[in-house]
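Known limitations

Files may contain more than one protein. Parsers should not assume a single record per file. Below, a two-record file is shown to illustrate correct handling: read the sequence, read the token line, then continue until end of file.
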Amino acid sequence: MLKKHSQLFEGIFVALDLFVVTFSWLIAYWIRFSLGVLPIDKGIPPLRDYLPMLVFVWLIWGFFYKKAGLYKPSRGKGILNEIFQLVRANTVAVILLLAATYLFKEKTVPISRLVFFIFWGLQIFMSTTSRLLVRSILRKLRRRGFNLRYALIVGTGPLAQNIATSMIANKEFGIELLGFLANKEEFLKNGMKYEGPNLAPVLGSYESLPELLEKGGIDQVIVALPLSDHDQLESVVSSIGDTIVDIKLVPDIHKFIQLGSEIEEFDGIPVVSLASTPLDGMNRVLKRVLDLIVGVILFILFLPLMIMLGLLVKLTSKGPIFFTQERVGLDGKTFKIIKFRTMLTDAEKNGAIFAVKGDSRTTLLGGFYRRWSLDELPQLVNVIAGNMSLVGPRPERPVFIGEFRKRVPKYMLRHKVQAGMTGWAQINGWRGNTSIEKRIEHDLFYIENWSITLDLKILGLTLVKGFRNRNAY
């Protein structure tokens, strides 16, 4: 029954996506050539020239949607993740379609690039809207008791309780918890009494699993054994036998996870990554594209201001305009950060120390530059060159890192992503002479929850809150 429902919904989504992609293609043609708002220089091509392209559109979109996991069951998954996958799949598919029409332009009818661009925007909007609408209907039905899956959790420890709490709190997932199975010793001691939160009853011991499955009514078995019971894992999984229920294995490794976790594959062998981050693969490419586009625009906009600031540095203090310093970035590699010089040239003759309030080493305009983050504008060069990102943890000096990593747990994990000009810690006030622990806490939150949306939010908040740094001296 579970498989049938999954196939039914997959069929519905495939049909919906085929309709949406076809409609978007036809509307893109209509907007370009029939709406009358865009100039037409080379005449209006007949619609019949554009219809054969739909065959390639269906194949390419179907392939990338399937590859992105957009037809897999989404119970328990966030909507934002699905939207991001839709945007990414549509973007990659359009780029591939554009490349294909360019490579085979001598054998195909010329297709307007504007049609592709309009189609891309329409497809993202319409596919996202249609998915959200269907998901919303499904969530409402599940909250009312329709289309439910009935689950049994094997285990009664904190991990099992967390899963149960999430199921009960998120009725829209459509998973009804029937109960738990405890280890034999615990079950004989407590019987049907469950000593944890009153989430669901304990239905028996691990050995009761085959009997309960035989009775039917269970769609999903979630094996969430505590580490102390992992020696029984093999017997529990073996007892499930060849039943057709959906089996989920949740390893009790939460306390070992440093960042995020994900399942990878090594030559067919599943491997759990304990320090994964969303910023990998295509996501890293997307972030780099955002850095280049926005970085170049900001550099051009701020260039007149930077020229004026540089001249003021030269006129008010002896020494070079720019100050370069070694910092640690992605994967612990060092790079030279570029800033406007705000201190005297011999400021560190007695060694590296943090700036303090009323620091005598600061130049005439240095304190002002630092308070308003004007000294950091040249870092746009670092962003464009690829040493830094617009958004990420602030890069630190190697001389201080040895001290910080001894003092702050997980400090080095901040180097799993590109260092940034601004970041989650900075917009929340943790920059300059503030708590290192709090900065790391915010940096790790950013790394674990990264998305293009979060980057844009941080950039927006940086502009709204202004560049003033009250903790800079």
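...continuing to the second record:
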Amino acid sequence: MTSKRAIIVGGGISGLSLAFFLRQAGVAVTLLEKEPRVGGVIRSSQSEGFLVEHGPNSTLQKPGDASDALGRVMAQVGLVPQVANEKASRRYVQKSGRLLPLPTSPWEFLQTPLFSPSAKLRLLLEPFWSKAEAEESVGAFVSRRLGPEFLHWAVDPFISGVYAGDPQVLSIRAATPKIYALEERYGSLIRGAYAMRKKGRVTGMPKGRLISFENGMESLITALRTRLMESDSSQVRVMTGVTVERLTAMPQGGWQVDGGGGVRETGDWLFLAIPAFAAAPLLESLSGVAAQHLAGIHHAPVVSMALGFDRSQVKHLLDGFGFLLPGREGLDLLGCLFSSTLFPGRAGLDRVILTAFMGGTRHPTTVAQGDDALVAGAMGGLRGVLGIGASPGFVRITRYERAIAQYAMGHMQRLDQIRQALASWQGLYLCGNYMGGVSVADRVLNSERLAQSLGHP
């Protein structure tokens, strides 16, 4: 592989981590990014003593697990993770204007007012339901196995928190494959969860931990770029501010990429580490079928809002990860992270920072609202449940018109059709958040696996 050169279009976490793994295999890399900086949506900033995450606030790592590609990267680049406060295990859901903790034990489950007695009794029937014959949405799957209350008050807010999406639209197999696998393998979520827990006790399977970094998630981006730039300049080129305009398969093999400003790069392999909507027009000349399917993958809009307060202005203990809002609550807010509780050093002495999320598929037009309207909408969902008696003294708003890929019904078949349509184009690979998971850890793992599939030791 040492004589190969790869062109990577896209400098987000997928493209950067792929470049890292390919360099480990001795592949020369040219990375093209249209923005002035690499990192994509992963961006951290410091202002007025607050640390703001403009994109992902954390990710789940499983130290020692075979799937822990992120841990392998951190070890290689000398990056030390910041582990979330142990209070992060407490997660709240709003119901009827109250924040209720999600139960984390059988006793808490029996005591919680989040679910009615009949819903709790119905859970006992879960092992007796048969599997569905056809593909199901997350909503249909959960309603069938656990009942509608679990959908409304647990799974619906979870899906909003992860995908900013609608459980009635997302595919159980594509969006939550681990839950789908429990039914496939064990015939029951309860039996499957018990078997996995027992296996973990016997084998010492690693538990996941929520992590970030002392200076925010962008530390990962900085570390990856620094390691890449330490390579021989003839082996690594990172070019920002380059808009790719045309992809050409060379007659003798390999690829040519033309971009704005007269940029022209050639390589043996071409990787599109960009969102589906960005890949679609580039692939139109190669395969109209693939382009059409990629364009059909919806990306939910998201507004991320950092709000800073004096600690005395917030009555709630903020003793947890944060809270999520089911759609039935009828508010613009999707959820809120207690950011300064999760990781120390985010707000300074006697202050707190909250990260509120709005928009998603529930409220797709929210992203177009002005700053004042967004703050008002967020505070309308925060003031009462958190006991906030003042307006935020610090506000930072980040808008994403197309943020999180939606793994809708038929998503797996769509991906298969894209692969089939592009199968004749040798050396062309797709790598984006519309396949293999949307988290930071998922993206790094998928990049590692892609590099390994090409002959990575």
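Parsers that stop after the first record will miss the second one. For reference, the second record is described as follows. The two ends are 10 Å apart (CA to CA).
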